[in-house]
Amino acid sequence: MIIAILVTIYSFWQLPSYSSVAPDEEFKIVVRRNEPLIAEDLAFFANNADSFQKIHVIEGISDQKFFAVKDPATIKKIVGAVSLEPKPECACAHFDEVEFFTKDTSRTFVYCDHCFDSCQTMSWQTYHMNPELYELLTAITDENGSGSSDIR
Ligand SMILES: [Zn+2]
Ligand SMILES: [Zn+2]
Questions:
Q1: Whole-model pTM over 0.85
Q2: Which of 46, 88, 141, 147 could pair covalently with 59 via S-S, beta carbons 3.0-4.6 A apart?
Q3: Which CATH number does 19-143 carry?
Q4: What is the pLDDT of residues 80-128, one digit of tens each?
């Protein structure tokens, strides 16, 4: 029994560390690790654009501002700009958040100008930020940037 445990520990210890993996292999590890989440995200955005009911954009971390998007045309534009191209994680901090709501469910993402991260319970996956999506989200937070926009 103890030997089996020692062998297990030893074989884990022998696994290559992240730093010794070539960049494209690192990419595959990230993708493989979160395959179920990627499938869920793809399925969520495969919903008809009409089934999205509202979008919340939350700016900042301590002094948060909330923006609720309910205009169907704007919702369609934002949903249409989402692309789910996985990328390796990076170490930047994310203070802005966007939540997509359909009639039945919702999904949360945090973002910056180059990351769009799916943050679900106990699981996350990072995607490339589509510049068009970033522009649309920034336009929403800039619109009412100085005022209190807690309209949830
Ligand atoms: Zn980054
Ligand atoms: Zn980032």
A1: no
A2: 141
A3: 3.30.1490.410
A4: 999 999 999 888 989 999 999 999 999 999 999 999 999 988 788 999 9
Ligand nearest to the CA of 96: 2
Residue spans of the domains in the chain: they are 19-143
Q: How far is the CA of 50 from the centre of ligand 2 (A)?
A: 29
Helices (H), the chain: 2-13, 23-33, 35-45, 72-80, 131-143
Give the ligand at the shortest distance from the Cα of 91: 1
Q: What is the dihedral of CA 84, 144, 105, 97, to 10 degrees?
A: 50
Whole-number Å distance, alpha carbon 82 to ligand 1 midpoint, is 18
